[in-house]
Each structure stands twice: as structure tokens, then as C-alpha cells.
Amino acid sequence: MSNIELSGLKFELLAGDSVFIGENKGGWIYGGQRPKHEVRCPDFFITKTPLSLDELSYILDSELSPGDERTWSGERLSAILAILNERLVEVKEKLPSHCQWEIRCPTQSEWLHAKEQEVISPQCGAKEILADSVSSNYRGAMMDGRPRKFEGHGPMQWHTATMEIHPRNDAIFALSSAPMDRNNSGLSVRLVITPIREGPPRKVPSRADYGANIRSELLWTTLLGVLPSFAIPWLRGMGDYVFTGWVNLLFGGLCAGFVTGAFWRPRRPIVMYEDGE
What we know:
Number of strands: 12
Largest sheet: 5 strands, antiparallel
Strand order of the largest sheet: 1-2-5-12-7
Helix content: 25-40%
Order of helices and strands: EEEEEHEHEHEEEEEHHH
CATH class of the largest domain: Alpha Beta
CATH superfamily of the largest domain: paralog of FGE (formylglycine-generating enzyme)
Radius of gyration: 24 Å
Number of domains: 2
Distance between the termini: 31 Å
Number of helices: 6
């Protein structure tokens, strides 16, 4: 396969590989970023830069106003993708015929894979739309690079995940979100040509090992909170208070253990592709 040009857009070929997403630090402040897991991306194509005003004007065959390339809604994005997917037949001979292909925004795994391979160069202050829906953590996340759908009900179903770049340092970025049920300025759209994944997805296990987590929390809360709370007055010659004020010491130790748990606990296991469900 080689690079592809379609409707004035240049798509760079990116060889498939594994990318690791999420955080395996044990502190509860990292709960929304766990579990760290492997995602296997297939070969796909990606634009090096987000859609520019000229490129968007060329696709629509219409003269657009400055800023139109950074104002998006779900309806507008769907319309643009529909136009491009209809034109995908123009480069059909350049794509392997063993699967179906589509044009869409990248998933988080595709975006990160392209970033790690230095195929894309994010722009400082940009907020790029992803194909994934919003979720509270990575439980149930897709492990083959396909978009994650929204699960549940509520206003967040109208949001999409975005990759937000630091205003002054393009090496710093974070996952965020944006509402797509209305026009939203300050967004950027990058596109991929990627295989449509067929069959049931392989997902990150939806449940953690709660028993192991509870045992670990009891152990470290005791070692880092409760035991020091009793040992300190004892070592300072206040042995009587250990017996008379044990309730206060226990409560203080539990609080200290809880605080340490916010920032540090042993690292959690990484979910490999073979461990998905």
C-alpha cells in the first residue's frame, strides 16, 4: 500500500501495531484512566494535519468564511464524512480488497499510534475530535482500534471524546470532550481511512478484581496509616494514650491511609490483548 490523496486531502500510510492506552498507577486519582491496556491497530491512513479552511472549501466546493474549519457539530461532521465516504470509491484500487474501508475521525488509539510514530504533529491549543464516545474509564474499551460507543443514557450521549493539546507545548495532551448537539467553535477535525472492524469486538474486561483491590487497600491502609498512627505516640513515650485514645488513633490512621491511597498504591496489571473479553 502507498499514501492516498482524495478530494485534496493527503493521507499518510501508518503500519499497524500495538499501542498502550491508559494508566496503571494505583492511586485512586488515576481511577478514570485505568486500566492500562493494549490496543492492536491495523494498517490505516491518516492526515498529517487537521482539515484547513481551503481543504474544507474544496470538499464542499464552496467558499467558506475564516473560522468555519474550527466550528463543528455532529450534524455537520456527519455530512462531511458522508461526502468523503461516497468518494472513497475513487481510491478503491489502492486499498486492500479483503475488507471494507471507511473515512472518519481517528479513535484515541489510532491518534496515539500516529503520534508515537511521529506521523502527525498536533498543533498547540488544538482540540481534535475523536471517533470515540465519552466514558468514565477504560472498562469495556475496544482493543482493536474501533470507535467506542456510548453506553447508558443522559446528556453525555451528545458529547464526543476529543484530544486537547497544551496551549504552549504540543508534547502535552489529554483526553477531554465536547458537545456535538450544537455548533461548537475551537474544534479541529483530522481524518483517517481505516478498515471497518467486523465481528464482535475484543474489549477490556468490564469488571476489575474487586477482591484483590479490597485486600490491597486494607493492607496498605494498615501499613501506611493505622500502624504509624499507633506507633508514633508509643515511641514518644505516650503509651497510655495508645489504650485510652485508640479510637482517635484508629480514625486518624484510616484518614492518613485514605490520603496516601489518593496518590500511591502498587501499580495495577496491564491488560494485554489476549486478556480481553
